């Protein structure tokens, strides 16, 4: 086995939440930090890594910017998913205090997830490329008025103090990651719950989306995600990303996709992969609250 075969790429510096996800899901693989999401995709397509761990959405801050553009064009296939509870820490150089911090640096998603805490303490949010990179910069500066939102692992790596733990605004703060590879690895039919992810465009005619979605309703397919986004900067060109429960070889989903293909353009399946146990656990919690 080559070193690349045992490598998993992620966006961010060592200690980022994506790094932690790699370590949790693939403890025997070597995490490869990448400056940008494009670099993480390239590491896999160019053969420097076998897999990539990419965040796609967060239960508080919503979807991760650019992912829905990169996924259809990146040439990779979704082979799995991972849900990770995110615990944000307020970290700063040794000797700093919460009262003394003026600015807090982090990824825009982390800042959004801790908006209430920062406002309550009068700290100005400053956007960085990633959480761990912000921690590294704060450590380098050594300014007691500058802090970062990062993981406890990042604080350990960069020699920072943890001033507060769990500062996220919601207890359910969870990030969903996609596991990507060069080659497709569709989940076998009948081996358990499956998620199918795909993108499509609808024809520019009245009720096109309504008609395209009709097959999922009539065939009893549960759609867990449907998002639209602009394509090519044109307000009249919209692409949709969707997740549904089921396998394309199962008759209900096969019929639904055939009907979608009739009304849509550029239907592309991005992956057929096992549903993470978090989905059923979350559903059971929701049912218990009814």
Shape: globular
Order of helices and strands: EHEHEEHEEEHHEHEHEEEHEEHEH
Return the CATH architecture of the largest domain: 2-Layer Sandwich
Number of structural domains? 3
Strand-residue proportion: 35-45%
Structural class: alpha/beta
Rg from alpha-carbon coordinates? 21 Å
Corresponding CATH superfamily of the largest domain = ACT domain
Count of individual helical segments: 10
How much helical structure, as a percent, in the residues?
Answer: 25-40%
**Kindly, what is the distance between the CA atoms of the first and last residues, rounded to a whole number of angstroms?**
50 Å
The third-level CATH topology of the largest domain is Alpha-Beta Plaits
Name of the CATH first level of the largest domain: Alpha Beta
**Number of DSSP strands?**
15
| Mean pLDDT score | 92
Helices and strands in order, then pairings?
Layout: E1 7-11, H1 17-25, E2 30-34, H2 37-45, E3 51-58, E4 62-63, H3 67-73, E5 77-85, E6 89-92, E7 103-107, H4 108-113, H5 115-120, E8 124-128, H6 131-141, E9 146-150, H7 152-158, E10 161-165, E11 174-181, E12 194-202, H8 208-218, E13 223-231, E14 234-245, H9 251-263, E15 264-274, H10 277-289
Parallel strand pairs: 1-2, 1-3, 7-8, 7-9
Antiparallel strand pairs: 3-4, 3-11, 5-11, 6-9, 6-10, 12-14, 12-15, 13-14
Site (Essential for prephenate dehydratase activity): 175
Pfam family, one: PDT
Catalytic activity: prephenate + H(+) = 3-phenylpyruvate + CO2 + H2O
């Amino acid at each position: 086995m080559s070193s690349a075969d045992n490598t998993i790429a992620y966006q961010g510096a060592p200690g980022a939440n994506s790094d932690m996800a790699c370590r949790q899901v693939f403890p025997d693989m070597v995490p490869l930090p990448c400056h940008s999401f494009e670099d993480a995709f390239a590491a896999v397509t160019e053969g420097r890594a076998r897999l990539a761990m990419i965040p796609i959405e967060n239960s508080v801050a919503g979807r991760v910017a650019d992912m829905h553009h990169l996924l259809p064009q990146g040439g990779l296939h979704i082979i799995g998913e991972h849900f990770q509870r995110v615990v944000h820490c307020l970290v700063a150089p040794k000797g700093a205090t919460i009262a003394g911090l003026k600015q807090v640096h982090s990824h825009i998603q982390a800042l959004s997830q801790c908006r209430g805490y920062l406002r309550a303490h009068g700290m100005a949010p400053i956007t960085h490329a990633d959480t761990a990179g912000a921690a590294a910069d704060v450590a380098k500066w050594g300014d007691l008025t500058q802090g970062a939102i990062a993981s406890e692992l990042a604080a350990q790596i960069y020699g920072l103090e943890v001033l507060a733990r769990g500062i996220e605004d919601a207890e359910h703060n969870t990030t969903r990651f996609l596991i990507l590879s060069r080659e497709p690895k569709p989940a076998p039919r009948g081996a358990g719950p499956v998620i199918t992810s795909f993108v499509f465009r609808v024809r520019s005619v009245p009720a096109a989306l309504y008609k395209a979605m009709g097959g999922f309703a009539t065939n009893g397919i549960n759609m867990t995600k449907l998002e639209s986004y602009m394509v090519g900067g044109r307000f009249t060109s919209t692409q949709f990303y969707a997740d549904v429960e089921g396998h394309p070889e199962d008759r209900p989903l096969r019929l639904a996709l055939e009907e979608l293909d009739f009304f849509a353009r550029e239907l592309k399946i991005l992956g057929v992969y096992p549903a993470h146990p978090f989905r059923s656990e979350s559903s059971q919690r929701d049912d218990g609250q009814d």
